[in-house]
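ok trying this again, last paste got cut off
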Amino acid sequence: MQINKTTEGGRLRREMSYIDLSFAGLGAIIGSGWLFGVLYAANYAGPAAILAWIIAAIIVTFIALVYAELSGMLPEAGGITRFPHFSHGSLVGFIMSWGAFLGYAAVPAIEAEAVVQYAEHYITSFQNNKTLDFVVEAIILLIFYAINIYGVKVFAKINSVVTFLKFITPTLTIIVILFVAKHWGNYTATTAHGSGFMPYGTAGVFIAISSGGIIFSLLGFRQAVDMAGEAKNPQRDVPRAILTAILLGALVYTLVQVVFIAALPPNAIAKGWAALAYTSPFAQVATIIGLGWLASILYADAVLSPSGTGLVYLSSGGRVVLGSARNNYLGNKFRSVSERFGVPIWAMSITVLFAIIFLLPFPSWQSLVGVISSATAFTYVMGPVSLAVFRKYHNDKHRPFRLGGAKVFGLLAFIGGTLIIYWSGWGVDWKLVVGILGGTAIYLIASAVGAPVEKITREDWKSGIWLPVYLLSMLAIAYFGAARFGAPFNHNKGFIHYPYDIVVDIIVAIVFYTWAVASGRNSEDTEQAFARAAELRRGVQNGEASLAD
């Protein structure tokens, strides 16, 4: 028996402008990544970390273009979870919703950890005191929660101001260090372990993308997708906001990496780029090169930037839970929206709870970033598939933004996401697959014993069996792949050696993309979603779209 899908309580308020949506995305992108990502990317790739940012930006742009069409066409709250449900049914929809939730809930945790890690510079009691760190990080997460609870309009105003300040700080850093940095020879330096521009080869560049915080930093564009249900004119503004955020974010991060490498004193890299170590990278380097005033600004920004990103992700995480509840994967409580504040309080509450839980097994920034990157890349591979299915069944529907060459860009986006999962390595991927399939197994059991959630039908299995097989295939490639990416096979020697492992991964991605698109279907839910989008468009044209179901 299907569950009544009527939204309970109040409704989401359409109060976010193009600027608000762009700042939500940019605010998520410019967070702890620019404070730590430049260091860890250099650890893995040396000066070639610049290439890693550029390659990652290209991959993310392919993905962003796909979601620009999807979110303009179907502006749904928690769109990341809704699109798979519409194109493939409940099995795929739940798996993607669960994976997206894990990725979203973990980000506020990592941002709270970043705040505390930088704060160790002036609050020495944080050093080597994990209990105190945990308590403070949990309090920071609760502050994010409180701000979000007061409604999307308050959130948008606070976030727009915070994001503007966050954008100014890295821009100032780029300009100042560009004129002060003297060690441009670092780009071709000879060290004790590797030399030249690419001391760890192309594999090092790929590892930096997934494990160095690069892909983690750039994936923030999705915020506009998840908050489409609260945009004043989503079909016009969401696609523009997505592209604005990713292009500005990628430019800032690439330039930040350029000046960071040139600012490093040669003795810092004498033992190799992998040995480069700072607890507060940019602030410490600024101090070393005589920019104490800039270091002070950076220590202050180390609270502002991660806090702004954590604030945004906690908000979007709540919308992911709301979208999952509207798919009937959760109980009615999580579908409700506060009449007073116009936000999904129960959905926000479960998100902050999981964020606090994430602090326990992953007590540092770097320990969590790879898991987030892989989980997020996994959820994004579904976008190109859903787009292809919608083109097949609903090609005539209104699209404010229509992606030219969608077949090519969609396939490239799917391949890019698949590569990111592989580059994350066995140590991350087995945790990801076990977490996602374990959660799916619990859902299937709950559904079978009569829990009030969406049942997985024969049609759902027919449309969705490719996805569990895809996950297991990714796990197998990670296990038998190259030693460079942590494959444990044959005593960590691997079986499919680099670069043949990359070729195999690409071929597997093409096979699964073809299977996934062929498995897509049309449904009553999909028809209703397009009807809602058409009604919303008419309401916007008549100046009536102030609330959203």
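PB: full thing came through this time. The chain has 23 helices and two strands.
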